[in-house]
Design goal:
The chain is mainly beta and about 100 residues long. The protein contains no helices and 8 strands. The radius of gyration is 13 Å and the shape is globular. The relative contact order is 0.22. The mean pLDDT is about 90. This is 6-phosphogluconolactonase. It comes from Florenciella parvula.
């Protein structure tokens, strides 16, 4: 997450709670991760690639849906690091990683 202290993870699969993006908080001293309090839909199926795009005024999280062949773009809310779906680009063949 911007500024450190947290990391986003993707949950992919076919069971309840799958196909989500979760924010894990990181302890500043030990580096231990705390389980996510909330998760959001990844915007697709079988989320693989996750990338943070930082900007001067806004940060975005990109999530590639391997099986749904889409890239979901989320706005990262400053301060809380919560995600809000901004765009869902479809027709992207098997996006599994970002360079």
């Amino acid at each position: 997450a911007p500024g450190g202290g947290a990391v986003w993870v993707s949950n992919r699969g076919f069971s309840a709670g799958s196909n989500t993006i979760c924010l894990l908080e990181m302890d500043a001293v030990s580096g231990a991760l705390t389980a996510a309090k909330t998760c959001v839909s990844s915007g697709g199926t079988f989320p693989r690639g996750v990338a943070l795009a930082t900007g001067e005024t806004q940060d975005y999280l990109l999530v590639g849906g391997q099986d749904s062949e889409n890239i979901a773009t989320f706005v990262v809310e400053k301060g809380s690091n919560q995600l809000k779906l901004a765009q869902n680009l479809t027709g992207v063949v098997t996006p599994v990683t970002f360079a």
